[in-house]
UniProtKB/TrEMBL annotation:
One GO BP: polysaccharide transport
Record-stated family: Belongs to the ABC-2 integral membrane protein family.
GO-annotated molecular function: ABC-type transporter activity
Name the UniProt record assigns to this protein: Transport permease protein
Localization annotation: Cell inner membrane; Cell membrane
Domain of life: Bacteria
Example of a GO cellular component annotation carried by this entry: plasma membrane
UniProt key word Transport: yes
Length: 261
């Protein structure tokens, strides 16, 4: 499959993304509010636990609430994009079975549909930062870089997971468990500096940490992505490998999808 041919399917792709978002949220009584109910409730509970229970004040000199939320919105998109993207082929099995269709589009549809919520969450974070006195500066200009990095990473994992899900029906449960492990294994809720020096390399090996810390560098710690070339190369190496693996899996197995589904 020539992936440049995806542009021929652009109108179909846009329509699928819009219909997927409407079907997930706008068909319910509360509509799109459901897209934010779970994340907001999670944030509220965590802020209460850490601020009231553990009396967390600041992390590396910044307010705990904006530090926490800036990491959580990244994780929310990763979790939602991978979980929904992994189910893309099975959910849209009618497209796979009944017509000639570029099945590689399906995980892209899911990951893009989830992006709507992430963009709104990011806007809400920016509003909170402005309310707390954080003003836009030159470091915010690199936000598109981290948007793209986050999107491509989630897509790369979703492509691999969506193919596996076709052949291993229980894989969705495995992904949910991995997402729970990933949340606690990534410095989203805790500061990486808490780890002893001999274990710091484990944080560096986690590509999600690159994204979480990237958002925090943009909004809070004022650092440039090109100041850490080794971390960037590692992240993009892992992401490219996952993306190539996903493309290879589609190429090798897509002709079997209709028979298995």
């Amino acid at each position: 499959m020539n992936y440049l041919g995806i542009f021929r399917y652009l109108p179909i792709f846009v329509n699928l993304v819009q219909s997927d978002f409407r079907r997930r949220y706008l068909g319910t009584y509360l509509g799109a509010l459901w897209a934010f109910a779970a994340p907001l409730s999670t944030i509220a509970v965590l802020l209460f636990v850490f601020n009231v229970g553990f009396r967390s004040g600041q992390v590396s000199g910044v307010e705990f609430d904006v530090w926490l939320i800036s990491g959580l919105i990244v994780w929310f998109y990763i979790s939602d994009g991978i979980i929904s993207g992994s189910n893309a082929i099975t959910e849209y099995s009618f497209l796979v079975k009944k017509m000639q269709f570029m099945t590689e589009l399906l995980p892209i549809v899911k990951v893009t549909s989830s992006l709507y919520v992430h963009l709104i969450n990011s806007a809400l974070l920016i509003a909170l930062l402005l309310y707390k006195g954080h003003r836009p500066d030159i470091y915010w200009l690199q936000l598109p870089y981290y948007f793209i990095s986050l999107y491509v990473f989630v897509l790369s994992v979703a492509m691999v997971a969506s193919v596996i899900q076709v052949f291993i029906k229980d894989f969705q449960g495995v992904i949910s468990i991995l997402m729970q492990i990933g949340l606690w294994g990534t410095p989203v809720l805790w500061d990486a500096k808490m780890l002893p020096a001999k274990y710091q390399f484990l944080v560096t090996l986690n590509p999600v940490n690159y994204l979480v810390q990237g958002y925090r560098e943009v909004f809070l710690f004022k650092g440039w992505f090109f100041e850490h070339p080794a971390k960037a190369l590692y992240f993009w190496g892992v992401t490219a490998a996952m993306l190539l693996l996903g493309m290879l899996l589609f190429k090798k197995t897509k002709h079997e999808f209709a028979d298995v589904l």
